[in-house]
UniProtKB/TrEMBL annotation:
SUPFAM superfamilies: Glyoxalase/Bleomycin resistance protein/Dihydroxybiphenyl dioxygenase. Residues 4-127 form the VOC domain. CDD domains: VOC_Bs_YwkD_like (cd08352). GO terms for molecular function: lactoylglutathione lyase activity; metal ion binding. The keyword Metal-binding applies. InterPro entries: Fosfomycin_Res_Enzymes, Glyas_Bleomycin-R_OHBP_Dase, Glyas_Fos-R_dOase_dom, Glyoxalase_1_CS, VOC_core, YwkD-like_dom. This is VOC family protein. It comes from Flavobacterium stagni. Keywords: Metal-binding. It holds the Pfam family Glyoxalase. The keyword Metal-binding applies.
């Protein structure tokens, strides 16, 4: 029935700050940026390695996330990385705080968490 996940949509509180984070810090590519006057909202389509992945939205009347880490809804967004130490070093160059490395007890793979400008939990997971 399903062939893949098409995209993940995120609502952000500070559009310019989040745009810079996802493009400059995480390195996602801009596919298209649209300002929707009737909604006073931006929509930014982003790709990871050429694959459409994330939509960023700005809305003037967004609602804050209820709590962390166990709020109902999206728990976190995970990025697969080949060299987790290099990915951590890159994030730290941009002053992004990264939690200590952990080992997945079931796979033996390394992983860690960090946060976007709105506090959305993001994960790096070794492949």
């Amino acid at each position: 029935m399903f062939s893949s996940i098409h995209h993940i949509a995120l609502i952000v509180s500070d559009y310019e700050k989040s745009k810079a984070f996802y493009t400059e810090v995480l390195g996602l590519e801009i596919i298209q940026e649209v300002y929707r006057e009737e909604r006073q909202s931006y929509k930014l389509d982003l790709a990871l390695n050429g694959v459409y992945s994330i939509e960023l939205f700005s809305f003037p009347d967004y609602k804050p996330r209820a709590s962390r880490p166990e709020a109902l809804g999206l728990r976190h967004l995970a990025f697969a990385v080949e060299d987790i130490e290099a990915a951590i070093t890159r994030l730290q160059l941009f002053q992004v705080e990264v939690e200590p490395l952990r080992i997945d007890e079931y796979t033996g793979k390394k992983f860690t968490f960090f946060f976007d400008p709105d506090g959305l939990p993001l994960e790096l997971y070794s492949i």
